[in-house]
Amino acid sequence: MTMLSERQQLSYIAAQAADARLNVELETEGMTLNIGPQHPATHGTLRIIARLDGEQVVWAEPSAGYMHRGYEKLTEVRTFPQVTSLINRIDWLGSFANEVPFILAAEKLMDIEAPPRAQHIRTILFELSRIANVGLFLGDLGVQMGAVTPVFMAFRDREYVLNLIEGATGGRFHPNFDRIGGLKDDLPKGWIDETKQVMKKLRRFCDEIDDLLFGNEIFQSRMRGVGVIPSDIALQYGLSGANLRASGVEWDLRRDQSLPMAWDKVDWKVWTHPDGDSWARCWVRLQEVRESTKIVDQLLDTIPAGPVMAKVPRIIKVPEGEAWVSTENPLGEMGYYVVSKGDLGPFRVKIRSASFNNMSIAPWVLKGVYVPDIITILASLYFILGDIDR
Amino acid sequence: MPKIPGLIKGLGVTMGTLGRTVRDGADTVQYPHAKEAPPVRARGVIALREDNCTACMLCARSCPDWCIYIEGHKQLAPPRRAGGKPRQVNHLDRFDIDYALCMYCGICVEVCPFDALFWSPEYEYSEPRIADLLHDKTKLGEWMETVPEAPELEAGAEKKK
Amino acid sequence: MSALLAVEIPYWGQSLLRVLGGIVAVLLPAGTIVYLFLFKMMSFMQSRLGPMEAGPFGSMQLFAEVGKWLQKEDIVPAEADARIYKLAPIIVLLSTFLLVVVVPFGPDAYFVDFSAGVFYALAIGSVSVIGILVAGWSSANKYSLLGGLRAAGQLIAYELPMVLAVVGVVIQAGSMNLQDIVVAQNSGSIFGWDGVGFPFVLTQFVGFLVFMIAVQAELTQVPFDMPIAESELVSGYMTEYSGFRFLIFFIGEFATAGVFAFIASVLFLGGWGVPFSWFGWEGLDDVDNWMNIGGPLIMFTKMLVLTGIIMWVRFSYPRFREDQLQRFAWKVLIPISLANIALTAIVKVAV
Fold first, then answer.
1. Strands A178-179 and A182-183
2. Which of A82, A163, A217 is opposite residue B39, by nearest beta carbon?
């Protein structure tokens, strides 16, 4: 981990300023470039309206909402068990992680707690979905920069993780496995050994990506010193997750919050990076995948025996009240504010998804960069369209 | 040891993968010729055991996108014991699942109190027309053959009653 | 000037043979590169098998793809400058055909024996810039425009190191004729030992490296594919093209890769020749007639090795940013190749 030297940062800023001055002197005419809603780089239907001066961005603005599915409203007309099957489609790459905060919020309202075995398995699946999600990000990073090979490696190794999730829950993408009061089912036989094997493969995958992409000088020259977000700006824009940690803020809800989950029972590290540039954001994520495999490995060894379901009535009615629970999802802080009026379903659910807030910094960070840097900065900010539009 | 430049290392990774693919074969499966076995719990398709169904509508009501269509009527069945009164049973006329709508959440299988619905890992039932994905109870009954035994549980799990 | 065969062939026959030979020399490498590297090597590097259904091991896949492209509608955007838009891919492919003309494939197997061959090749190589610029401009698409302008900037920037890298070879061989360069390499000797001839890659290694990097950039392959940059510019100057015009761009890309690899193997790797000492040949006139068959095969093998490296790099690296790529050309490659020329000239004069 090397810090970007001040000289490098200054030279980058100076180069941009010089370009801007030149453009003013020549009185060039700008052009507006619409990146999206259908564009290979936006992995979804995000639209970036960029005002260009040559290859330089004068201002840029993300325009979200092309894939709005109205989950906040939909949850109002569904019962509590049905809601989990909907909300795991918000961030479709790490879907189990979407279910957990909602279930925790409902459990908080009902004042029940899942048995320790269920908490453990929940945490394992949560971290597995983080690996599946961020692992794909690491591969996708290459594609954004023209390297085609990493993404195939990412898909190959994500497949192992998805097979695990499918083996335990039955759903590859949308597990719908978390229940109020515990889990739907226990783990099938042989799953723990298989998971340990896969964790070894994933650590090898991280090393491969490290060699193929992060060690590559071209990649470094594209990422270092580009899209720098200082920590105070990051906090002002409400960034969360790896984007915030890459700006040097040591903030991780898994550690800072006491939730009925098993993170506090294992030994792990919160990675941060002082630079706050694109490189730092990607690097922190790579370390987090490695850290997640370690968390899973430790948790697998210490699963307590017992039931996976607390005693809950067959027809779930959540008592009146309001609860807010957020967790550290693969993309950042994801939380649900659940308001219940004692009915079968929630009265109102406010979803705080990480990508929406992470994207809100785009106009600030895209100002003055070059067109190719738009793509790398967006890639390093890492958004999932479903998570932005909900 | 001097640091190997990342550019060379990257070339090494791709060439190493090429060597592994030549030696051990690819990680991919040539799909129509070879198939991967999905896990036992895989949610491929919902199979129906018609005899167990009492047309109670619980599944249809709990479905988040209402893709189950059930029609039934009450009829008199011959009494269990000789000389008894004829029993009134629910007879299932129609049980359709629209797989174009189904989102494979598994809530219907879970809520079924009579063990009439099961998950099968069968996945090859695509249709060229979206309307053909509406499957009736005979088709759903045929899938019963592909339903596997529930897997054994990992050590430390509590046995289900 | 003898023809490909010993018998006397009328002029029209010779011309016909040359045209056919040119088509083979352009399309055969292109097809081989696409199948061997783009379909198979890339897939294997990504731990998959690539196309397997069309023909044995998917070897007919390319024909299937060509058939698919030919069936597609040839779309011209409403705002586009239709005539120029249609012409652009043909200019690009034409430059490839013109380029292969000077490449010698054997003692007699050449299209034109041109004494300023190197000069011609480097000049014609930049004609494709016009085609690309025109394609980007006439498409009436912002992405195409950005791609076309980037391509123009990049191709011109990398033309220079390429020319300068070749100068070293020209100084060493004392000729600009590609045939003479081949002969000079194969009849030469290293400190009196003539076992492998004297391929210029040994002395001109820096030149070879610069040339190959410049070729990579000329071909707009990763890491220099900013003009196409599919993740940001959709497909650069090719964005609007479809059907057979896209096919022509596609063939042009890989055919040019093959032809540049031919030229690189002529300039640095000894071309079609085997070391003359193996068979006791003195000069070009002694070379046996079978080299007219063997020479093209040797060239083809060398071409495959070189394009293999080009493609290997392409599948492993991410791409440079536009300004980094320009800086690399002007601040690194050009000074290096200038130093290389100076050094070569000093040694040449001194020895």
1. antiparallel
2. A163
Q: For residue A98, tell me if it sits in a domain.
A: yes
Q: Which two tokens stand for residue A383?
A: 């958004």
- H-helix or E-strand spanning residue C25: helix C11-33
Q: A–B: how many Cβ contacts below 8 A?
A: 109
Q: Domain limits at A232?
A: 71-364
Task: State the pairing for strand pair B134-135/B87-98.
Answer: antiparallel
**Chains touching C by CB (3 or more pairs below 8 Å):** A, B
| ipTM score of complex | 0.81
Interface touch C47/B7, C-beta < 8 Å = no
In A, which residues are within 8 Å of B14 by CB distance? 149, 212
State whether the Cα torsion A202-A204-A209-A214 is positive or negative: positive
DSSP 3-state of C216 = helix
Taking an 8 Å cut-off on Cβ atoms, the answer to whether C320 and A221 are in contact is yes
Asked whether residue A1 is assigned to any structural domain, the reply reads no
Q: Kindly write down the DSSP assignment for every residue of A158-215, as one continuous string.
A: HHHHHHHHHHHHS-SS----EETTEESSPPBTTHHHHHHHHHHHHHHHHHHHIIIIIT
> Is C322 in Cβ contact with A145 (below 8 Å)?
no
Contact C324 A39 (CB under 8 A): no
Q: Residue A180 pLDDT more than 50?
A: yes
Q: What is the pLDDT of residues A61-71, one digit of tens each?
A: 888 888 888 88
Q: What is the mean pLDDT of residues C150-155?
A: 84
Chain B positions touching C320 (Cβ under 8 A) are none
pLDDT band (50, 70, 90) for residue B160: low
Q: Is B95 helix (H, G, I), strand (E, B) or coil?
A: strand
CB atoms A79 and B5 under 8 Å: no
Task: Give domain status of residue A27, yes or no.
Answer: no
| Tens of pLDDT, residues C87-116 | 888 888 888 888 888 888 877 777 777 788
Number of structural domains found in chain C: 1
C-alpha dist (Å) from residue B11 to A142, B14, C269: 14, 5, 23
C243-268 vs C205-218: helix crossing angle, rounded to 10 = 180
The sign of the torsion formed by the CA atoms of C85, C86, C92, C94 equals negative
Residue A386 belongs to some domain of the structure? no
Tell me which chain C residue has its CA closest to the CA of residue A152: C46
Interface mutation target, options B18, B21, B36, B41, chain A, most CBs of A under 10 Å: B41
Confidence of residue C129 (pLDDT cuts 50, 70, 90): confident
pTM: 0.82
Kindly indicate the confidence band of residue C30, based on its pLDDT and cuts at 50, 70 and 90. confident
- A contact chains, 3+ CB pairs < 8 A: B, C
Q: Do A308 and B14 touch (CB under 8 A)?
A: no
**A342 touches B at CB < 8 Å:** no
Q: State which residues form the domain around C309.
A: 2-350
Is the pLDDT assigned to residue A7 strictly greater than 80? no
CB-nearest partner of C312 from B11, B26, B28: B11
Q: How many percent of chain C have pLDDT more than 90?
A: 0
Question: Worst-scoring range by mean pLDDT, A33-42, A145-154, A218-227, C131-140?
Answer: A33-42
How many residues would you count in chain C? Answer: 351
Residues 6+ apart with CB under 8 A from A208: A153, B13
| Chain A residues within 8 A of C319 when measuring between CB atoms | 145-147, 218, 222
Number of domains comprising chain A: 1
Give yes or no for a contact between A243 and A358, defined as CB atoms under 8 angstroms apart: yes
Question: Which residues of B lie closer than 8 Å to C, measured between beta carbons?
Answer: 7, 10-11, 13-15, 17-18, 20-22, 26-28, 30
Q: Does a cis peptide bond (omega within 30 degrees of 0) precede residue A115?
A: no
**CATH number, domain containing residue A140:** 1.10.645.10
